From TrEMBL:
<keyword id="KW-0732">Signal</keyword>
<dbReference type="Pfam" id="PF13802">
    <property type="entry name" value="Gal_mutarotas_2"/>
</dbReference>
<comment type="similarity">
    <text>Belongs to the glycosyl hydrolase 31 family.</text>
</comment>
<dbReference type="InterPro" id="IPR000322">
    <property type="entry name" value="Glyco_hydro_31_TIM"/>
</dbReference>
<dbReference type="InterPro" id="IPR025887">
    <property type="entry name" value="Glyco_hydro_31_N_dom"/>
</dbReference>
<keyword id="KW-0378">Hydrolase</keyword>
<comment type="pathway">
    <text>Glycan metabolism; N-glycan metabolism.</text>
</comment>
<dbReference type="Pfam" id="PF21365">
    <property type="entry name" value="Glyco_hydro_31_3rd"/>
</dbReference>
<dbReference type="InterPro" id="IPR017853">
    <property type="entry name" value="GH"/>
</dbReference>
<dbReference type="InterPro" id="IPR048395">
    <property type="entry name" value="Glyco_hydro_31_C"/>
</dbReference>
<keyword id="KW-0325">Glycoprotein</keyword>
<dbReference type="GO" id="GO:0005794">
    <property type="term" value="C:Golgi apparatus"/>
</dbReference>
<protein>
    <recommendedName>
        <fullName>Neutral alpha-glucosidase AB</fullName>
        <ecNumber>3.2.1.207</ecNumber>
    </recommendedName>
</protein>
<keyword id="KW-0256">Endoplasmic reticulum</keyword>
<dbReference type="GO" id="GO:0017177">
    <property type="term" value="C:glucosidase II complex"/>
</dbReference>
<dbReference type="Pfam" id="PF01055">
    <property type="entry name" value="Glyco_hydro_31_2nd"/>
</dbReference>
<feature type="domain" description="Glycosyl hydrolase family 31 C-terminal">
    <location>
        <begin position="513"/>
        <end position="601"/>
    </location>
</feature>
Length: 735
């Protein structure tokens, strides 16, 4: 008999051992190395997460289209409602149904694709109902397929069972959001670029003259000498220290950009030192990897090398970063990394890192390492005493430990305003609580209505910064008409009045890993109406916000969730029973915000120029009663700048509770103590009848009757000047 033919070798996939993309070749020295795994989620039809994508909060089935891509890229004028890759990647997917939430964390920093399948996709509500009535119909099920170009399979299953349990479990794995310095929750004014010291002074003066609060002014790439980071243009910024000292004297701060591409220049200390130490990323042939970026020909520090991160952190010392002071903080842009001359505007996958790793293995980690080294530098320059503030464009799982992120180079149009909400909600679910979008849009020029609506929306997102492209018209708020300027001022003041609530929410997030800005289903996990909602959201558990994102809007439909709950309009204090969909008429001045019945919301209502100017200002407590006549809430206070809250327990965490006609203040965490000038100026109780009397009892037992005013139409009681310190125990009884 004939000897059996040896089995034919399977044909190689084209591109398995070498791949060409446009003019770029990827040598793939290890050949095909991909890994993948499929997960079935029976009973689930709502999945979320895997940022960053300019898409709805609820992820869509990808059958018949592209999968969601996770690959950090500098995308020029990105489109909305697409699964395309953007600046950052967190490979965490969450699934939710009534009574159960879970998470899948696929720990892999190589290029990753996520395919989502669903057996209910395309079925109408009527179709699902028909299935149900006929007793048939399969259980809804979602299929998730992860595919990464390289690496190993390393998956964490987060079993909840509640939404906050999943985010807390993820926080235990990757760290929770760093507690931001208080100033960074104020308003930030940026553009590419404020021209020189005189321009900076004029803009700062504009905020002063128009009585607009401002905490931080930003400088983009043109401030440096020929885009050599850690330097200042000697003609435009001859006296940076003096400029920073003037800002600090007005209780304001500055952020300057420090990007991770280093100009190839024998006369530039950063380049010569890193080259001499061999700390740049290498090509596959072992030479310094060079590509084109803002300064022209640039080399890329290898931030995966601990020695490189150490060197970088030391550059932020006051004697190394010339002209820097305590008032200067940092912005890391272009850290995907962006390489104008590279494939897809990023680094070649066969470039080599510390330890011989190829770039393809760890691409999505590069930005996190830049962010980490920069934050470490800002901590180190103060001897470990002061909290850093660093904004980063690229990110990965764990970037929340180092600071803030934003949605990158958006466009001045209504779709981009709209998409900023689901984008930030997705960031928050993936641990990145300190998120925002460029107010007004980075590219192009917003009309006045869009600019006002964007300020109103931005005032209710965690990171609040206006920013604009070099080629756009100037758009400081006072360049608007007086009517529109007044609306921007009102939005800014609402932000500042609510800073105690924002800061307390960030403390909860830092401690428990729960997002600050969160989807409704996290608070109302058994209400399917909320599962796909992403045009309204909660701030902590206390405020419901539905920004107006349509041009010419006359009204919005706001869904008020919660069986048997009550909500109060933040401006009129009108009461609304839930659950219901409420039509709210709006004018250009309206920001639909509702206080949740059963909560206590701390505010500081005196308008000031910055957060630091509010330090000794008194507080107002808004007590929004539940239908049962009860409420609970808390307030977190510390010095706003240092790590003393963690190292010396220098903080106050107060608990407020209203029951049986009595409002009580007690310590929520007796391990913390701090002297604070803060005192209580007013208490506003919503949903209460007129009492005969209001009696304040202080911790030593002494009693004082309080003056009050009652509005019977809205059932609002205002108690005047209790005058007690915020850190003290006291109670107020209504009789």
């Amino acid at each position: 008999p004939q000897p059996a033919e040896p089995p034919a070798e399977p044909e190689e996939e084209p591109g398995a051992w070498e791949e060409t993309f446009k003019t770029h070749t990827d040598s793939k020295p290890y050949g095909p190395t991909s890994v993948g795994l499929d997960f079935s989620l029976p009973g689930f039809e709502h999945v979320y997460g895997i940022p960053e994508h300019a898409d709805n909060l609820r992820l869509r089935p990808t059958e018949g289209g592209d999968p969601y891509r996770l690959y950090n890229l500098d995308v020029f004028q990105y489109e909305v409602f697409t699964p395309m890759a953007l600046y950052g990647s967190v490979p965490l997917l969450l699934a939710h149904r009534p009574r159960l939430s879970l998470g899948l964390f696929w720990l892999n920093a190589a290029e990753t694709w996520v395919d989502i399948g669903s057996n209910t996709a395309g079925k109408t509500l009527f179709g699902k109902l028909l299935d149900y009535m006929q007793g048939g119909g399969e259980t809804p099920q979602t299929e998730v397929r992860w595919m990464s170009e390289s690496g190993v399979i390393d998956v964490f299953l987060l079993l909840g069972p509640g939404p906050a349990d999943v985010t807390a479990q993820y926080g235990r794995l990757t760290g929770t959001q760093a507690l931001p310095p208080l100033f960074s929750l104020g308003y930030h004014q940026s553009r590419w670029n404020y021209q020189d010291e005189a321009d900076v002074e004029a803009v700062e003066r504009g905020f002063e003259e128009h009585e607009l609060p401002l905490d931080v002014l930003w400088l983009d790439i043109e401030h440096a000498d020929g885009k050599r980071y850690f330097t200042w243009d000697p003609a435009k910024f001859p006296n940076p220290r003096g400029m920073l000292e003037r800002l600090a004297a007005r209780k304001r701060r500055m952020v300057s950009i420090v990007d991770p591409h280093i100009k190839v220049d024998g006369g530039y200390r950063v380049h010569t030192e890193l080259r001499a130490r061999g700390l740049f990323v290498k090509t596959k042939d072992g030479n310094d990897y060079e590509g084109w970026c803002w300064p022209g020909s640039s080399a890329y520090p290898d931030f995966t090398n601990p020695e490189m991160r150490e060197w970088w952190a030391n550059m932020f010392a006051y004697d190394q970063y010339e002209g820097s002071t305590e008032a200067l903080f940092t912005w890391n842009d272009m850290n995907e990394p962006s390489v104008f001359s590279g494939p897809e505007v990023t680094m070649h996958k066969d470039a080599r890192h510390f330890g011989g790793w190829e770039h393809r293995e760890l691409h999505n980690l590069y930005g996190l390492y830049v962010h980490k080294a920069t934050a470490e530098g800002l901590i180190r320059r103060s001897g470990g005493r002061l909290r850093p503030f660093v904004l980063s464009r690229a990110f990965f799982a764990g970037s929340q430990r180092y600071g803030a992120v934003w949605t990158g180079d958006n466009t001045a149009d209504w779709d981009h305003l709209r998409i900023s909400i689901p984008m930030c909600l997705s960031f928050g679910l993936a641990g990145l609580a300190f998120c925002g979008a460029d107010v007004g849009g980075f590219f192009q020029n917003p009309g006045a209505e869009l600019q006002v609506r964007w300020y109103q929306a931005g005032a209710f997102q965690p990171f609040f910064r206006a920013h604009a492209h070099l080629d756009t018209a100037r758009r400081e708020p006072w360049l608007l008409s007086p009517e529109h300027l007044a609306l921007v001022r009102a939005a800014l003041r609402r932000r500042y009045a609510l800073l105690p609530t924002w800061y307390t929410a960030f403390y909860h997030c830092h401690r428990q890993g729960i997002p600050v800005m969160r989807p409704l289903w996290m608070e109302f996990p058994d209400d399917p109406q909320t599962f796909a909602m992403d045009d309204q959201y909660m701030i902590d558990r206390v405020l419901l916000v539905h920004p107006v994102t349509e041009p010419g809007a006359r009204g919005v439909n706001v869904y008020l969730p919660g069986e048997g709950e009550v909500w109060y309009n933040d401006e009129t204090h009108e009461q609304h029973r839930a659950p219901q969909t409420l039509y709210v008429p709006v004018t250009l001045s309206t920001i639909p915000v509702f206080l949740r019945g059963g909560t206590v919301i701390p505010r500081q209502d005196r308008p000031r120029r910055s957060t630091e100017a509010m330090k000794s200002d008194p507080f107002t407590l808004y007590v929004a009663l539940s239908p049962q006549g009860t409420a609970q809430g808390d307030l977190y206070l510390d010095d706003g700048v240092s790590f003393d809250y963690a190292t010396k327990n220098a903080f106050l965490h107060r608990h407020f509770s209203f029951a049986n006609g009595t409002l009580t203040s007690s310590s929520a965490d007796p391990s913390g103590s701090m002297s604070s000038p803060a005192w209580l100026e007013r208490v506003v109780i919503l949903g209460v009848g007129r009492p005969e009397s209001a009696l304040l009892t202080t911790h030593d037992g002494s009693q004082t009757p309080l003056q009050f005013q009652h509005d019977p139409e809205h059932s609002v009681l205002t108690l005047r000047r209790p005058g007690v310190p915020m850190g003290a125990d006291w109670s107020i009884s209504l009789r």
